[in-house]
Every structure is written in structure tokens, then in C-alpha cells.
Amino acid sequence: MLSLLARIGRLTLERLAGMGRMFLFLFSAFAWAFRPPTRFRLILYHVKSIGVDSLSVVLLSGVFTGMVMGLQGYYSLRKFNAESFLGSAVALSLLRELGPVLSAFMVTGRTGSAMAAELGSMKVTEQIDALYSMAINPIQYLVSPRIIAGLISMPLLTAIFDVVGIYGAYLVGVGLLGVSSGSYFAGMESSVVFQDVWSGLLKSVSFGLIITWVCCYKGFGAQPMATGVGQATTESVVLCFVLILIWDYFMTSVML
Q1: Which helix (H) or strand (E) holds 218?
Q2: How far is CA 10 from the centre of its chain?
């Protein structure tokens, strides 16, 4: 019994210590982000790699998410003779929840995994140690630009996801199923307020921070072994998914 309690206590202390290291890593990244030299070129490069390079998968997933929502929403609302509320139902669902969460999932799978693998490979091949030897802080050079780029890119990707998702639902609901175009947009205009848009964009900013923070931390902590990079990449993607869902719940409960 005592050995079981000792193992539980040891595991709890290890998890708490890991959480502390993660938060110290984040604080260090923000502290170095405001120290000269400011690496604008690196920030722009990572905005391209996180935002522009993920645009195709965000567009594709956004269109088909909207089309599925338009199809399912129509047949659900038709049971109550409320097809005119299709536009408001789709818009509210995308703006508040599905847009930020699904776009964050797409970016995690497309860019976050690559970020963790790249930094893990640099750690295993001692390139990060080489930066220290050249008097370059690797947090400032590798992590801070990625975090800033994630904070910039995720709201833009989420906005694009929302727009193409609403248009995808319009194509199915109005073009295929015969919902009135006027009622589709009128219901959306009457039900959507600025708070809905703002809450979704605020969530996307926090998700961008989670993705870059977790993936960079896991990449920096990759073990110097044959499976170290793959393990770090897998852990980063899984942890990002879990944290995004947990944080989404807490933000939703606060913003309602």
C-alpha cells in the first residue's frame, strides 16, 4: 500500500515539475521576444509556414465542414419547420466553436507536427547546442518567432475557415436543398453579434499559442535516441488536441 502511494506521489510530482518546466519555457520565450535583435524576417517566414502553407487544408476542411453542417442542419431543422434558421445555426456554430477548434486541429496536424519534428531533429543532432556556442539564444532564435507567428496566423486562418464554411453551407442549403437565400442571410444577420465573432477569434489566438508552445517545448525536449523525434512529435500532437479541447471548454464557459 505504501509503495503504491509512493508511486502515485512520485508520478504527481513529476507531472507538476513538467508543468513548471513548460510554463518557464513559455515565460522565457515571451521574455526573449522583446529583447533585441528583433527577428522580423524569421517571424514573416514562420507566418508563411504556419499560415500560408496551411491555407489549402484549412480551405478544404472549411468548405466541407460547412457543407456537412448545411446538410445535417437542414434535415434537423426541417423536423420543426425551421429551415429559415439554417444560416444562423451554421454561422453561430462556426464562429463560436467549430471554426477555431477545427482550424486549430488542421494547423496542429499540418504545421505543429512538423515544428516539433524540426526542433527535435535539431536537438538530437546538437544544432541547438551549436547555437549556444555561437552566442545565439535558441529560445529567441527558434521559439519566440514561431510563437509570435502562431498568434498572428491562427486568427486569420480561423476567419477564412468561418467564411468558407458559411459559404459551403450556403451552397448546400440554398443551391441544393432549396432554402431561401434571403432567409439564410437574414437569420444570420439577426442572430450573430460582435461577441460571437470576437469570442471565436480570441479562442483562435489562444489556440495558436497552445500549438506553438507545446510543439516547440516537445521538440526541445526530444530524447537523443532513434525514436526520440517521433515520440516528441506524437506527444506534441496529442497534447495539443487535448489542451485545445480543454481550454475551449473553459473559454466557452467564461464567454457565455
Answers
A1: helix 194-220
A2: 32
Q: How much is the pTM? A: 0.91
- List strand residue ranges (DSSP E) for 8-153, in order: none
**Measured distance CA(58)–CA(208) in Å, rounded:** 14
Residue type, 153: S
200 vs 159: CA distance, rounded Å: 9
Domain residue ranges of the chain, discontinuous segments joined by +: 2-255
User: Three cell numbers at 157?
Assistant: 486562418
Position 236, amino acid: S
* pLDDT tens, residue by residue, 167-183: 999 999 888 888 888 88
User: What is the longest distance spanned by two Cα atoms in the chain?
Assistant: 70
Q: What are the angstrom distances between the C-alpha of 85 and each of 32, 73, 105, 200, 255?
A: 49, 9, 28, 20, 23
| Stretches in the chain below the pLDDT threshold 50 | none
Question: What is the grid cell recorded at 109?
Answer: 496536424
- Tens-place pLDDT, residues 32-53: 888 888 788 899 999 999 999 9
* Burial class of residue 87 (count of CB atoms within 10 Å of its CB; 0-12, 13-18, 19+): buried
Angle at 232 between CA 37 and CA 205, to 5 degrees: 55
Contact between residue 142 and residue 116 where contact means Cβ atoms under 8 Å apart: no
**Helices 144-170 and 86-93, axial angle in degrees (round to 10):** 170
Q: What residue type is assigned to position 165 of the chain?
A: G
> How many angstroms separate the Cα of 82 from the Cα of each of 52, 74, 110, 165, 219?
38, 9, 38, 20, 50
